[in-house]
């Protein structure tokens, strides 16, 4: 899936997680090329968090296979650390006016580029 807006990392049990997410009807789900990582295309990515939060409150064990669920505003592909830095700068620049001179941080959970992309 190329046009995704939610990343789901897993605690193993890929087929169980795919089945669970498909059953919830939150949008198409695909296994990514990275170990224990799924991607989704949700109509409202932030609503996915709300639905999963409600499901976890009612049936916490059912979601035990999920580790992190992250809605994404922007995505891009890259083939080198230099290309990553250039595209990340470009995407972050659209938030500069809203930041108004304040500082911020970005947390990255890297999959791939081990030893080539410093996180």
Describe the overall structure:
This protein has 119 residues and is α+β, with helices and mostly antiparallel strands. The protein folds into two domains: 6-71; 76-119, no CATH class. It is 35% helix and 15% strand. It has four helices and four strands; from the N terminus they run βαββαβαα. The chain has helices spanning 14-24, 45-58, 81-93, 96-99, and strands at 6-10, 29-31, 37-40, 66-71. A four-stranded antiparallel β-sheet has the order 2-3-1-4, covered by helices on one side. Strand 2 and strand 3 form a beta hairpin. The longest helix is centred in the middle third of the chain and has 14 residues, at 45-58. The model has no long low-confidence stretch (mean pLDDT 89).
Topology:
Blueprint: E1 6-10, H1 14-24, E2 29-31, E3 37-40, H2 45-58, E4 66-71, H3 81-93, H4 96-99
Antiparallel strand pairs: 1-3, 1-4, 2-3
Radius of gyration: 16 Å
Determine the number of helices (DSSP H or I, runs of at least 4 residues). Answer: 4
Number of strands: 4
| Alpha-beta classification | alpha+beta
């Amino acid at each position: 899936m190329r046009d995704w807006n939610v990343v789901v990392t897993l605690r193993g049990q890929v087929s169980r997680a795919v089945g669970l997410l498909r059953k919830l009807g939150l949008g198409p789900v695909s296994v990514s090329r990275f170990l224990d990582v799924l991607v989704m295309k949700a109509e409202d990515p932030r609503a996915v968090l709300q639905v999963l939060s409600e499901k976890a409150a009612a049936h916490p064990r059912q979601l035990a296979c999920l580790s992190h669920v992250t809605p994404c505003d922007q995505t891009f592909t890259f083939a080198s650390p230099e290309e990553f830095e250039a595209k990340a700068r470009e995407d972050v620049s659209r938030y500069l006016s809203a930041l108004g001179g304040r500082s911020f941080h970005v947390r990255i959970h890297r999959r791939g580029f081990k030893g080539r992309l410093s996180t």
